[in-house]
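User: Second chain of the day. Same drill as before.
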Amino acid sequence: MSKQTMTLKDACKQYIEHLHAIGKKPSTIGTVTRALDLLIADMGEAKEIANILPVHLVKFFKSEAATMQPGKDGPKPRAEASVLQIKRIVRQSIVWFHAQGWSEKVGLPEAEKRFLN
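Assistant: Same format as last time:
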């Protein structure tokens, strides 16, 4: 594995560029961008990819950012499909970051590792 360090902000930017390069639809890229923006806001732009641990992702998946959405009368719960979509996008990006050599291990929580097979 490479010892190259990569911040979460830069890694997410490169992941979005990768999606453009492989021809993903603009609507898909927009959805991925919004989901990753939630992750960046939660963990911080400067978070090193190599330092993202399963415990950090569990915390994010349970956070208000991932489970609630803004409403005119305050936050309201996201639809279950939206929560699952956010998890799927984050999971895919974490696996892609690992494939780029930015982390030694795929830092997914145990409950999410079943999707790796």
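The mean pLDDT is 91.

User: Great, on to the next one.
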